[in-house]
Structures are given as structure tokens and as C-alpha cells.
Amino acid sequence: MRLSLQELEAAINWWRERQPARGNEHALSAEVKVLARVYALMIVDHVHDVELDRLDAGARQLLRQWQENKMGSGPQDQTP
């Protein structure tokens, strides 16, 4: 299964709502950092989608949680 850049942006925004930046330095949450790394690599490599199997387990789990919420089949505020 492939993940588009737009879907990744939606997942990042979903996680940002649940785990907002904190502190005076506005540090990103661990969840957002994981997905932001994938996003940055996609931008640098000029790709519009990526195979989910190529992502590490942490990123796949975060995306799975976002997808479950999007489809209404999972808990609303589950964190890894």
C-alpha cells in the first residue's frame, strides 16, 4: 500500500492536534518528529508517495493509528 504526501500531511496534522508542540522552544512531539522525518525525505527526494513497507515500524504504527481514527474503527486518542 502506498501513502501519498497529502495523506502524510493529514496524519501529521492529526498527531499535532493530539500531541502539540511544548515548551518555550515549541519542540515537536515524538510522534510528529517521526512523521516529519518521512515528510522531509519525501520532499528532498521529490516523491509524491511512498510504499508503507519501506517505513520503519514506528512510522507505520503512527500511520495505522491515524488511519484507524480516520475510518472510525479505532480509539480517538490512543498514543503509542
Strand order of the largest sheet: 1-2
Largest sheet: 2 strands, antiparallel
Radius of gyration: 12 Å
* Share of residues in strands: 5-15%
Q: Name the poorly predicted regions.
A: 74-80
Percent of residues in helices comes to 55-70%
Number of helical stretches of at least 4 residues: 3
General form = globular
Kindly state the number of beta strands.
2
Secondary-structure element string? EHHEH
Could you tell me how far the N terminus lies from the C terminus, measured between alpha carbons in angstroms? Answer: 22 Å
Average pLDDT over all residues: 89
List the defining traits of the structure above:
single chain; 80 residues; mainly alpha; two-stranded antiparallel ribbon; 3 helices; 2 strands; globular; disordered C terminus
Please, could you describe this protein's structure?
With 80 residues, the protein is mainly alpha-helical. The protein contains 3 helices and 2 strands. The chain has helices spanning 5-18, 30-44, 57-71; strands at 2-4, 49-51. Helix 1 packs antiparallel against helix 2 (30-44), helix 1 crosses helix 3 (57-71) and helix 2 (30-44) packs across helix 3 (57-71). The longest helix has 15 residues, at 30-44. The chain is globular.
